[in-house]
Every structure is written in C-alpha cells, then in structure tokens.
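Changelog entry: the Nitroreductase family deazaflavin-dependent oxidoreductase record was regenerated in this release. Current contents:
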Amino acid sequence: MLFGQEHVQRYLETDGEEGHEWQGTTVLILTTTGRRTGKQRSTPLIYRRDGDDYVVVASYGGSDEHPLWYRNLRANPEVTLQVKGDRVNARARDASEEEKARLWPYMAEVWPQYDTYQAKTDRPIPVVILEPRA
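Regenerated structure tokens:
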C-alpha cells in the first residue's frame, strides 16, 4: 500500500497511474511552500471535485494538531496540485461554515473515517477548497 513520501514519488513518476486510485477513493498531490524553510513540500490527499474546485480535508487522523501541509498553506495559500498528469496552480482557502456543512458529508461519503477523526479531537477539522488559478 502506498503511503507518505513513497506515495508522492510513485504518483509523480507515473503521472498518477500509481497512486491516484487509493483504497476505494482518489488522491491528488498537494504541494505547499514550507512556512519556515521555504521548501516545496508534497503530500498525497484524498480529494473530490466541487465544480471547478478541488476539496481536501485537514484531518491528520484526528490529531489535536493541524497537519503540516495545512499550517503551510495558512502561511502561503498559493499551492500546486497534481491530479494524474495534470498540474494546476491554485489558491487554498478554508470552507465557510455553510460550505463545510455541505462539503463534510460529501467528503465523508468517500472516506467515512473523517467522522471518526472528528470524534477523536476537539479541533474543528478544516475542509479546504483549492481554487484553480488561470
């Protein structure tokens, strides 16, 4: 099973032929800029489309801390994502409360563990919208 940096490497090497389909759902590679180092950091994340936008969840398995990729995009919301062989520049933002109310069940439909993760932490788990840039 692909996971972590091995997942990123195989995904990038094969333009998503390996790694886009994962455990019954789909994965993109999100690249953020490190808030302390300025280095590019790539993370495999479950995603779904919402119109032209991409939606991801900053669950971190229900940890009380936000994942590093989320902390990075809070410092610099300009990101790159890759879906299969397509690379897209995007701007990341948190879903509004209204958007989250609609998008959380939409995401949990393909990854029911999100509900379990939220039950494990008092931290409101962010739903992140990645808006493609022209």
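The domain at 4-132 is CATH 2.30.110.10 (Pnp Oxidase; Chain A).
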